Amino acid sequence: MAQGIVSVRMDETLKQDFDGVCQELGMSMTTAITMLAKKMTREKRLPFEVSIDPFYSESNLKALSESMEQMKRGQVVVKSLSELERMADE
Length: 90
Description:
Structural class: mainly alpha
Distance between the termini: 66 Å
Strand content: under 5%
Radius of gyration: 22 Å
Number of domains: 2
Shape: elongated
Mean pLDDT: 91
Oligomer: single chain
Helix content: 55-70%
Order of helices and strands: HHHH
Number of helices: 4
Low-confidence stretches: none
Largest sheet: none
């Protein structure tokens, strides 16, 4: 069977971590990617759940941005974890 080449670009740290996990499992990155491709073509779906991390929601990013601006202006309020937990219960 003829072989094709697939080139994938990814962050260097992710690549090293991925390679490390593959090595621990006793396989190459090529084998892992081939396994993914075979499973996807057989099942006609992603073999894992894909969802959006709520951390990156528009409202959360806006709140983080506003908090950073307040911090830059020196408008910082410091609270302990127990104080924050009490506020959440109110």
